[in-house]
Amino acid sequence: MSYPLRPALFALDPETAHRATIAALRLWGTLGTPFGASSVSDASAGVRLAGIDFPNRVGLAAGLDKNAEAVAGLFALGFGAVEVGTLTPRPQPGNPRPRLFRLVEDEAVINRMGFNNQGLDAALARVAATAKRAGVLGINVGANKDSADRVADYAESVRKAAPHADYLTINVSSPNTPGLRDLQSRPALDELLAACDAARGTTPLFLKIAPDLDRAGVEGAIRAAIDNHVDALIVSNTTISRPAGLRSAQASETGGLSGAPLRELARAKLVEAREASGGQLPLVSAGGIDGPDEAKRRLDAGAVLVQVYSALVYRGPGLVRDILRGLAATA
């Protein structure tokens, strides 16, 4: 499947193409677009989660709009929710380039961006200046790479972002900040989530986990989430594994793999999380969702919402409408 701008974007290196996409979406949001969110949202039933009314079940995963530059344009594509970030308390440049790779033959992406962002304060100023949101806004937060106290980083970000967000996501599952994934293990996760719970006020709190956790790791993360009043679990982030059969020459690059090759692993982890949670913790599914069939499969497997990102690279902006219309047709 292709879309009109794909050849031009694929002629650019991935990070330059990403910046061009953000610029276009920012402009799109100011001018308006025929992909109107209201007309698309009406085609799919919404859902209530954590006290939030989502206009539809399809959200944008964090990572595309790291700095909250194109929120209005992304909602105009039809997303029921847009998650910005990951944002850290202080700006940081991230890892050296190149750090973003297309695996075209596999419809996949590898990134080792390293939480590159302009800092939480700059993003929150943009969010505050967004006159009207057509859906639910999530703010995804993390810790600075050189932080001496990562728990304090998360708590500070949660405290600052809470008044501006419909929900907050705690990202402890990126593979591109050394040692970050260690925070998924107890008792470190209990300490972190307790601090974030104390800092969030009444804003719902989501936790995003890695697909590389084993069954015991998933169960431990879920128990920590429940014990510390987390409202939902996002399953899952990118994987450091490399499934057999990858064809792209870029497959050996270091970083987190996303896109089509993550599909089966993400689906399996969703099922594990559903079984381990016993219905006590709502689940959001991400990873390898590239159309209405896969979105429905995740919802049928226990997800309340789904999130997409990498498939947009290969399927284009019409993907959101396609998923929503497909879900409506099978409702």
What features would you describe in this structure?
- With 331 residues, the chain is of the alpha/beta class.
- The chain has twelve helices and 13 strands.
- It has helices at residues 6-10, 14-31, 37-41, 71-76, 120-129, 150-161, 188-199, 215-227, 263-277, 292-300, 310-315, 319-330, and strands at 47-49, 52-54, 58-60, 81-87, 100-103, 108-111, 136-141, 167-171, 205-209, 232-235, 256-259, 283-286, 305-308.
- It has an eight-stranded parallel beta barrel, surrounded by six helices. A three-stranded antiparallel sheet has the order 5-6-11, with no helix packed on it. A two-stranded antiparallel sheet has the order 1-2.
- Mean pLDDT is 93; it is low at 34-44.
Q: Report the end-to-end length measured between terminal Cα atoms.
A: 25 Å
Total strand count, please?
13
- Average predicted local confidence, pLDDT: 93
State the order of secondary-structure elements, H for helix, E for strand: HHHEEEHEEEHEHEHEHEEHEHEHH
- What is the overall number of helices? 12
Strand order of the largest sheet: 3-4-7-8-9-10-12-13
Shape estimate: globular
Q: Report the sheet-strand fraction.
A: 15-25%
Unreliable stretches covering 5 or more consecutive residues: 34-44
Compute the gyration radius: what is it?
A: 18 Å
Main sheet makeup = 8 strands, parallel, barrel
Structural class: alpha/beta
Approximately how much helix is present in the residues?
25-40%
